[in-house]
Amino acid sequence: MPNRVDDFSAYRKKMNERIFEIDHLGIKRFFNLDTQAYQDAALDEKTKELLGLVASLVLRCNDCIDYHILECVKVGWKDEELYDAFNVGLVVGGSIVIPHLRHAVETLDLARQSPEES
Amino acid sequence: MPNRVDDFSAYRKKMNERIFEIDHLGIKRFFNLDTQAYQDAALDEKTKELLGLVASLVLRCNDCIDYHILECVKVGWKDEELYDAFNVGLVVGGSIVIPHLRHAVETLDLARQSPEES
Amino acid sequence: MPNRVDDFSAYRKKMNERIFEIDHLGIKRFFNLDTQAYQDAALDEKTKELLGLVASLVLRCNDCIDYHILECVKVGWKDEELYDAFNVGLVVGGSIVIPHLRHAVETLDLARQSPEES
Amino acid sequence: MPNRVDDFSAYRKKMNERIFEIDHLGIKRFFNLDTQAYQDAALDEKTKELLGLVASLVLRCNDCIDYHILECVKVGWKDEELYDAFNVGLVVGGSIVIPHLRHAVETLDLARQSPEES
Amino acid sequence: MPNRVDDFSAYRKKMNERIFEIDHLGIKRFFNLDTQAYQDAALDEKTKELLGLVASLVLRCNDCIDYHILECVKVGWKDEELYDAFNVGLVVGGSIVIPHLRHAVETLDLARQSPEES
Amino acid sequence: MPNRVDDFSAYRKKMNERIFEIDHLGIKRFFNLDTQAYQDAALDEKTKELLGLVASLVLRCNDCIDYHILECVKVGWKDEELYDAFNVGLVVGGSIVIPHLRHAVETLDLARQSPEES
């Protein structure tokens, strides 16, 4: 049964395809830049995904948090390490981050339950 | 001759002392929590300082950027690695981050010139 | 069948009526100021609605984005022009705006499908 | 029949329990600091809850708004006083706050209807 | 000898006069609304100034912090009470508020030293 | 005699050159995307610069405001039109924008006084 993280991933995929269909050169280039920003370079992809996660937490964007948690799980971050990153985001961003922390913890639990992670 | 990074560090030190003098229990505990958030735990200090730097960039706080760049230099991040982290902050936070990127690049240059880094 | 944009407009109308019922002088004056800010003056309404849309995108407020897209469609902005405005919002606000870009593109598609636009 | 405010309170309770289960020292301490910040001290709890509400409004966090409205009702703020606080949040934060004002007014109405307030 | 708070007040006065000279109806009305938002109504002016101060802290606007600290001192808030309000702002807004806390503490010290407060 | 707008432009030029020297592919591509976002396309450059200005106002970035005011003056926006755009930014972003409005009005006055605008 699809959970909210699966729903998010499906919606994200559908709308990204719609955006590419629009074929706006600037928007397409931005999406490419965004992808490239997390690839191995002076910093490796694993570290960069964690940076993206904490940036998403302090900017309080649930969809961005979900995306980066899924990526962080894929590249091998462990729960304890992610909780430590959550804590940095919480201390930097303050109690206004707490609702997003609840969301993030739930997303991580859902990500660990999904078949592809078993 | 003191540069603006030295001035910032001196002002930060002076005002932190004034804040401790105020002796507000909640504020003191917050400062302790803030210090502890960057200490070695499931994630090491080095990684956490980089998280703090990117969080500061996307939240566009020059003083926070300066503080975390100085810490990142202390814990051994190289320029190329920091530029990669700057790039993640720029892509996540957008062109509104550019003035803070200019500030960050200048701060890093100043940090590398200072006697304690030579 | 009502879509999410219709639901938003209905909820907006219902709650604005409830807010007027409260009859707080400051709040009512703020709503008037907000309406007047987009009326023809030195800049025309059409230009101002586009300003409101980009401001809503970079501040990442989906309800505000929906409202201004509906207004932008009413005053005659074409899709290609709105995509160009989306791009300015994306570049200024960064990848954190992407979930709101997905939302905006979907809202525009829904607005174009609704009877009043046919 | 549970309304959205009851749903929020139930979700908040469930996820806070899950977060305590994670047992991250920094996160637990932050939650304690957050609780203590609103307790009677030089300022009383009643005033502090109103501060928390306006901070939540201008930072545009619906869950935080809901939480502080429920607390403000508990500590005895009257509707007219809360509308005045909403107005301060609206003027400071601008029209981007309006969707959150709609949400806040609805939450307050729901809070007044619930059995525990009758 | 004028300190930075006096300089801020002088600059604020000069530029507000320049803005009134521009004579833009919407802008003038906004300034009026802003003034009225802090006047005695269901909530008294004293409480509202404290709300304005905490909103300014969590939104991290030094000029706004300075203005509301000066007003808070005028309406009779004591240092211990203001520190408690600072703490609420710090916990809600996180460590990113710390540079603004330093600024606020210094502004309060300067405000207490100025002749009109003696 | 150079004023603060000239100083900003000189610092901006110097640091942009330093950033290009760093030669980070992602950062260079972002700067290109940023330049392209304001070029004639479905929307013309003149309209886009105004969008950039209002986005900068509501995101409260003085350097970005200065840059876009200089560009808006270059592409031919008149003072009355810019005041109208300032008003949209003020109403969307709230009183927290007022210090940036003061800055913007001063920058526009300085831009009109400079030799290249005479």
What would your notes on this structure say?
The structure is a homohexamer of 118-residue chains. Chain A has 118 residues and is an all-alpha fold. In chain A, 76% of the residues lie in helices and 0% in strands. Chain A contains six helices and no strands. The first copy, chain A, has helices at residues 4-22, 25-37, 45-58, 62-74, 79-93, 98-113. The radius of gyration of chain A is 15 Å and the shape is globular. Chain D binds chain E through residues 33-34, 37-38, 41-43, 47-48, 50-52, 54-59, 78, 80-81, 83-85, 87-89, 91-93, and chain E through 33-34, 37-38, 41-43, 47-48, 50-52, 54-56, 58-59, 78, 80-81, 83-85, 87-89, 91-93.
Return Rg of chain A in Å: 15 Å
* Chain pair forming the biggest interface: D-E, 30 and 29 residues
Distance between the termini of chain A: 16 Å
The counted number of beta strands of chain A is 0
- Shape type of chain A: globular
> What share of residues of chain A is helical?
over 70%
How many alpha or pi helices of chain A? 6
**What would you call the structural class of chain A?**
mainly alpha
**Oligomeric organization of the protein chains:** homohexamer
**Run of helices and strands of chain A:** HHHHHH
Q: Compute the average pLDDT of chain A.
A: 96
- How would a textbook summarize the main sheet of chain A? none
Give the low-pLDDT segments of chain A: none
Give the strand content of chain A.
Answer: under 5%
